[in-house]
Amino acid sequence: MNVEYQIVKIEDGQEQVMFSHKLAPLTGEVPEYGWYEAKLPVWNLKDSDGRPVTPGTYVAKIVIPDGLQYTVEGSAEVQTLTRLSRFTKWEYDIKQDDIDSVP
Fold it and tell me: Which of 38, 57, 94, 97 can bridge 10 by disulfide, Cβ–Cβ 3.0-4.6 Å?
């Protein structure tokens, strides 16, 4: 399963990716009631070219597949898990003071 962490700017109803980070793919066996935890890099309020962003509305997103197909050990039946995460995006208003406070 591939997962990507993105920061996008929302402007005039359009999304512009400012920062992204692909997590290592989830592969192999996962124990029953297993938990997936990822360490995400801190966003430094800079765009992909290293320039400070402008004030505005930004969204932190986790981009995940719509579903995950799996088999239970000892069975050949393929099952599908949907709704992999209850939350996949968080909206923030970044102000000039926020940008100025980053070294």
Answer: 57
